[in-house]
TrEMBL record:
<protein>
    <submittedName>
        <fullName>Tumor necrosis factor receptor superfamily member 14</fullName>
    </submittedName>
</protein>
<feature type="disulfide bond">
    <location>
        <begin position="64"/>
        <end position="79"/>
    </location>
</feature>
<keyword id="KW-0472">Membrane</keyword>
<keyword id="KW-0677">Repeat</keyword>
<keyword id="KW-0812">Transmembrane</keyword>
<keyword id="KW-0945">Host-virus interaction</keyword>
<dbReference type="GO" id="GO:0002720">
    <property type="term" value="P:positive regulation of cytokine production involved in immune response"/>
</dbReference>
<dbReference type="GO" id="GO:0009897">
    <property type="term" value="C:external side of plasma membrane"/>
</dbReference>
<keyword id="KW-1015">Disulfide bond</keyword>
<keyword id="KW-0675">Receptor</keyword>
<keyword id="KW-0597">Phosphoprotein</keyword>
<keyword id="KW-0732">Signal</keyword>
<dbReference type="GO" id="GO:0050830">
    <property type="term" value="P:defense response to Gram-positive bacterium"/>
</dbReference>
<feature type="repeat" description="TNFR-Cys">
    <location>
        <begin position="63"/>
        <end position="105"/>
    </location>
</feature>
<dbReference type="Pfam" id="PF00020">
    <property type="entry name" value="TNFR_c6"/>
</dbReference>
<dbReference type="GO" id="GO:2000406">
    <property type="term" value="P:positive regulation of T cell migration"/>
</dbReference>
<feature type="signal peptide">
    <location>
        <begin position="1"/>
        <end position="26"/>
    </location>
</feature>
Length: 200
């Protein structure tokens, strides 16, 4: 009796294996999540998974506990914690957290948000202009204060520029020149006028 053997290389089955794996991974639709190779229906926003589905039962869901939320259909077994608007980060609460939305924060007065790509998570105190500078742009909840240097002939305490006093226009003399942070110092009283009387 003659028996014929045909050798089949293992690589021949590889494409079939890959196709099967990809097919299994791609079977869950947008309203389902995959768990242990099973596609289960997602829970609605504001809910979390209590029990995953199986061959006989569908997913069971519970409402999110207090101070937690889910804002999209999901397969989470725990809802997400609500963000806390901490005053130590320059924040206060603008909109309270709900079961379907996170807390919305805003900067405290005198602060501005430094995280513009998402809900404000941190804020910093507005810069204070130094003496010799003035406030070019007042800070807002989204931008810092912009300071500039006062022009020559003026001074400031860090708020706005004031022109140096002209002592001569007041009938006085200059005792001390002004600087970028202080005014001119003028003589007290009216200046002494010496009148020359020609001799006869």
């Amino acid at each position: 009796m003659y028996i014929s053997y045909t050798f089949i290389h293992p690589s021949t089955f590889l494409p079939l294996l890959v196709i099967k794996i990809v097919f299994c991974m791609a079977t869950c639709n947008n309203a389902e999540y995959e768990i242990n190779g099973q596609c289960c229906p997602m829970c609605d926003p504001g809910k979390q998974v209590k029990n995953h589905c199986d061959e006989y039962t569908s997913t069971t869901c519970d409402s999110c506990p207090a101070l937690t939320f889910t804002n999209v259909p999901n397969g989470f077994t725990k809802c997400l914690p609500c963000f806390v608007c901490d005053s130590s980060n320059g924040l206060r609460e603008k909109q309270a957290c709900t079961s379907i939305s996170d807390t919305v924060c805003e900067p405290l007065p005198g602060y501005y948000c430094v995280d513009l790509l998402s809900n404000c998570k941190k804020a910093m105190k507005h810069s204070t202009c130094s003496p010799g500078q003035y406030i070019n742009q007042t800070g807002t909840e989204f931008s810092d204060t912009v300071c500039d240097i006062c022009p020559d002939g003026s001074y400031s305490d860090g708020t706005f520029c004031i022109l140096h006093t002209k002592c001569e226009s007041l009938g006085k003399t200059t005792v001390k020149a002004g600087t970028e942070i202080s005014d001119v110092e003028c003589s007290k009283g009216t200046p002494y006028l010496q009148i020359l009387i020609p001799s006869i």
